[in-house]
């Protein structure tokens, strides 16, 4: 089971134009700061936040309880000129979890309802003994094939084409995908196999002539899974595996490191 928290700024659209439209540069900076602060706050508890549309964010929050969510919510109220609402849900797949959380939040009223403030609810249950699977996907040799050859905007356009293709393909497996900068994407993907990813990569390569690779991490929290995914991706880059996917599981990884005589102090 994966635990997802949907985060939404309360009544944000009307606030941006009241009493007059606010400077766009200020709004962009404010949204970026909120994303950064939320990642730091949830990250302190081994969670991970993705910005989606900036006024609506999705966080992977396995291991994070309701009290911690409440404290984060209060901290945002104290730091920002607006409030946020949060709903937590769990499911076998990321898409199912975020959908359930979203539907529960919508039951409290519109995102632009001035009377709906600081909703905090659990749609079904908090995850006690679940896991997180995250794939860190990137484009093979984007520097040599795009960055150093075509314009900055054309590279950006191609990256977004790949992003959309990945989002549509992964949705067939009830997985999610988020852009995380450069040519990198992260996909919460509980239940997917390496073969599923290879099939998707082959279809995208046939259509766009772009090769992809992915480290896949499976851990108890978003931080554990994403760290393992990063290590798996480095194994592919270092040609330590013979295919474009590499899966690392938390317990297996810790056992292999301990067996090499290294001392680890995992925080579970």
Write up what this structure looks like.
The chain has 268 residues and is an alpha+beta fold. The chain has two domains: 2-122, Nucleotide cyclase, GGDEF domain (Alpha-Beta Plaits, 2-Layer Sandwich), CATH 3.30.70.1230; 132-259, 2-Layer Sandwich (Alpha-Beta Plaits), CATH 3.30.70. The protein has nine helices and ten strands. A hairpin with a 5-residue loop joins strand 2 (48-50) and strand 3. Helix 6 (152-171) packs across helix 7 (194-208). It is globular and about 55 Å long. 38% of the residues are buried. InterPro entries: GTP_CycHdrlase_3, Nucleotide_cyclase, Rev_trsase/Diguanyl_cyclase. It catalyses: GTP + 3 H2O = 2-amino-5-formylamino-6-(5-phospho-D-ribosylamino)pyrimidin-4(3H)-one + 2 phosphate + 2 H(+). Homotrimer.
Unreliable parts: 261-268
Total tally of structural domains: 2
Largest sheet: 5 strands, mixed
Mean pLDDT: 94
The amount of beta strand, in percent, is 15-25%
Q: Gap between N and C termini, in Å?
A: 17 Å
Q: Please tell me what the overall shape is.
A: globular
Please state the CA-atom Rg, rounded to the nearest Å: 19 Å
State the order of secondary-structure elements, H for helix, E for strand: EHHEEHEHEEHHEEHEHEH
The helix tally amounts to 9
- Output the CATH class name of the largest domain: Alpha Beta
The CATH homologous superfamily of the largest domain is named Reverse transcriptase/Diguanylate cyclase domain
- Helix share of residues? 40-55%
Annotated CATH topology of the largest domain:
Alpha-Beta Plaits
CATH 2nd-level architecture of the largest domain: 2-Layer Sandwich
Number of strands: 10
Structural class: alpha+beta
GO molecular function: GTP binding; GTP cyclohydrolase IIa activity
Protein name: GTP cyclohydrolase III
InterPro entries: GTP_CycHdrlase_3, Nucleotide_cyclase, Rev_trsase/Diguanyl_cyclase
Catalytic activity: GTP + 3 H2O = 2-amino-5-formylamino-6-(5-phospho-D-ribosylamino)pyrimidin-4(3H)-one + 2 phosphate + 2 H(+)
């Amino acid at each position: 089971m994966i635990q997802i928290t949907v985060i939404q700024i309360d009544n944000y659209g009307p606030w941006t134009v009241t009493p007059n439209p606010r400077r766009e540069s200020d709004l962009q900076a404010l949204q970026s700061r909120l994303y950064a602060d939320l990642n730091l706050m949830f990250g302190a508890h081994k969670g991970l936040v993705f910005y989606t549309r900036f006024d609506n964010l999705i966080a992977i929050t396995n291991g994070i309880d309701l009290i911690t969510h409440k404290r984060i919510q209060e901290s945002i109220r104290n730091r920002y000129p607006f409030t946020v609402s949060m709903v937590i849900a769990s499911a076998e797949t990321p898409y199912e979890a975020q959908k359930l959380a979203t539907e529960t939040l919508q039951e409290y009223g519109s995102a632009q309802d001035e009377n709906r403030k600081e909703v905090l609810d659990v749609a079904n249950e908090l995850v006690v003994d679940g896991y997180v699977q995250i794939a860190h996907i990137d484009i093979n040799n984007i520097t040599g094939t795009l960055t150093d050859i075509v314009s900055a905007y054309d590279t950006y356009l191609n990256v977004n084409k790949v992003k959309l293709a990945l989002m549509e393909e992964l949705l067939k497996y009830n997985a999610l995908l988020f852009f995380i900068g450069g040519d990198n994407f992260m996909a919460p993907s509980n239940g997917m196999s390496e073969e599923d990813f290879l099939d998707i990569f082959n279809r995208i390569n046939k259509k766009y002539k772009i090769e992809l690779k992915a480290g896949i991490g499976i851990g108890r929290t978003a931080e554990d899974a994403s760290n393992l995914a990063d290590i798996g991706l480095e194994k592919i880059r270092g040609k330590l595996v013979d295919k474009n996917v590499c899966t690392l599981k938390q317990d297996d990884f810790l056992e292999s490191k301990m067996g090499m005589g290294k001392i680890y102090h995992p925080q579970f």
